[in-house]
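Query structure, 338 tokens:
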């Protein structure tokens, strides 16, 4: 597979390294300023990958199979639709922009073009996450009923991130990963109610995003989720922890690779007391490189002509959910139906 990367920031660099490890060939990089593209090409390919600061020029001038779009939310300028029209397969880092209508249009354009797409939801590929997903699909876990998740950090990040007009806020730019996991396990959301505020950064004039939020979500099958996010937590740590309660087990995740599964088969406390036994406790300690795993899975889907597990429609749906949550927060917690 011949890969082109749009955006040479942290995520562009991460995926360029991962796709190379996965056996693909990095043939082009596009970024502004041009020297960031040049540096990435030099670091990964010894300068062999062609460098551009104009996407249209790269699309017209280089023969590639797959485009990795690694841009900030407001930097999308129609590249996805153009690439889809040119029959280029697409990997897009989250979020899929800031406008839900435009995101839905991107997903539709890619579907019409019949290209394989994938969103950058790397947490789906953690060892423990994959095991629980398999147990839900096989029926071993029983019906998923409740998801409780949190995203915590404490950083000012870049100036564009602090500006709600450019990043969309913490829910849209960071915590969306946890919201995506809730959808991955529980299915389609039907309603959300949320609260949010800037509690720790009011003295910083450039900081206009929320730093504290809490959401309650209802899903089509009746399951529920509560998700919180904070940028007032422990410095130098970016933590995503979550618990999934199913009919036959409860999975407590320290992170997507690490979890404790307590398997009780749906038996209540009284049955365990009578039997004198205890539920099985299964500890999972994985060390999967989730960026490499998602890129490997995407390239395998391309090679086998299969659908990816997190396509652009999933990206549009998750953006719709977090956008609705922020709409609810602005309305004082009013429930928003999806």
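Result returned for the query:
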């Amino acid at each position: 597979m011949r890969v082109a990367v749009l955006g040479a920031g942290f995520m562009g660099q991460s995926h360029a390294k991962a796709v190379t490890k996965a056996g693909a060939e990095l043939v082009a990089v596009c970024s502004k300023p041009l020297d960031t593209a040049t540096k990435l090409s030099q670091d990964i390919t010894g300068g062999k990958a062609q460098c551009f600061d104009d996407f249209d020029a790269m699309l017209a001038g280089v023969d590639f199979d797959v485009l990795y779009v690694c841009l900030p939310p407001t930097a999308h300028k129609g590249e996805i639709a153009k690439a889809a029209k040119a029959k280029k397969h697409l990997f897009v880092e989250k979020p899929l922009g800031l406008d839900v209508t435009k995101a839905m249009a991107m997903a539709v354009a890619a579907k019409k073009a019949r290209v394989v797409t994938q969103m950058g939801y790397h947490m789906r590929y953690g060892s423990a996450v994959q095991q629980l997903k398999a147990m839900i699909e096989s029926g071993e876990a029983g019906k998923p009923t409740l998801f409780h998740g949190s995203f915590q950090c404490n950083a000012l990040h870049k100036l564009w991130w602090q500006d709600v007009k450019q990043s969309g806020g913490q829910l849209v730019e960071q915590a969306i990963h946890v919201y995506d996991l809730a959808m991955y396990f529980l299915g389609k959301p039907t309603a959300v109610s949320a609260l949010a505020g800037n509690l720790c950064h009011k003295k910083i004039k450039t900081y206009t995003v929320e730093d504290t939020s809490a959401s309650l979500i209802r899903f089509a099958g009746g399951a529920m989720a509560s998700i919180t996010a904070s940028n007032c937590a422990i410095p130098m740590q970016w933590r995503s922890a979550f618990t999934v309660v199913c009919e036959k087990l409860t999975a407590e995740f320290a992170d997507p690779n690490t979890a404790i599964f307590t398997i009780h088969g749906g038996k209540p406390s009284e049955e365990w007391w009578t039997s004198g036994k205890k539920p099985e406790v299964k500890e999972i300690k994985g060390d999967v490189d989730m960026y490499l795993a998602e890129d490997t899975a995407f390239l395998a889907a391309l090679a086998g002509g299969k659908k990816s597990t997190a396509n652009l429609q999933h990206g549009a749906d998750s953006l719709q959910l977090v956008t609705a949550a922020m709409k609810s927060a602005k309305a004082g917690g009013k429930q928003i139906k999806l």
